[in-house]
Amino acid sequence: MTEVPSPPVLPGLAGVVLAGGAARRLGGIDKPSLRVEGVPLLVTATTALRAAEPVIVVGPRRPLPADVRWVREEPPGSGPVAALAAALALLDRLAPPSDDMTDASDTTDTTDTTGTSDATGMTVAVLAADLPGVTAHTVARLWSALRGDPAADGALLVDEAGHRQWLTGIWRRAALTTAVPTEPRGASMRGTLGMSSIVEVAALADEARDIDTPEDLRP
C-alpha cells in the first residue's frame, strides 16, 4: 500500500494499543513482538498512532520509544474491554475529561504544546497489536470520518466482506466511558460497543488483515 502523508498531529486524538492477549492459536508466543516484513507488530501499531498524544499501550512492557505510556489490565489477560478500561483510567489521569469533550462539531486545535490540554483525548483511537497493514493514513481516515459525522459515537474500519473491525477504530472518549461496564473482565468489544452509532470506513488493501494463526504470517 502506498502511504499517504497524514497530519503530524490530529487534534484531540489519544491512541490506545491493546497488546496483552495470550495468542493461543499461535502457541502462546508474544504476538505483538512478531515481525512482519521485518517490523514488530507492536511497532506497526504505535507508528500508525504517530499523530496521537498520548499513546497508551496495554500489556507487558516491550522496547518502544520513551514517550509511550504503559498500563496493564487487571487481571492480566482479562480481555480487550478490560484492557480498554485500564487505558481509559490512565487517560483520565493524564488528561482529565472536560465539558467541551462532547462538542463534536468543534474542530479547533486547542492542543497546548506546553502540557496536556483539556482537549487532549477528546477522541480515542483503539488498535489491536496484530495489524500488519494498519498505517497512519488508516487512522487519519477514521479520524476524518468521525469528525465529519457529529452524531456518530465512533468510526470503524470495515473489511471487504462488510465485517466491522472492532479493534481498528476511533471513538469519542465520552462514548467509550459510557459504554465500558463497571466489571469489564471477559466482555467483548462488539457486545460493549455494538449499540453505538458507528460510521463505517472501507478498508484499503490489507488494512483489515490481522494475525491469528501461523497461516496469517504468510505473505
From TrEMBL:
One of its GO terms (molecular function) is nucleotidyltransferase activity. InterPro entries: MobA-like_NTP_Trfase, Nucleotide-diphossugar_trans. Keywords: Transferase. It comes from Saccharomonospora piscinae. Gene3D superfamilies: Spore Coat Polysaccharide Biosynthesis Protein SpsA, Chain A (3.90.550.10). Residues 15-176 form the MobA-like NTP transferase domain. Residues 104-118 have a biased composition (Low complexity). It comes from the Bacteria. Residues 96-118 are annotated as: Disordered. PANTHER family: MOLYBDENUM COFACTOR GUANYLYLTRANSFERASE (PTHR19136). This is Molybdopterin-guanine dinucleotide biosynthesis protein MobA.
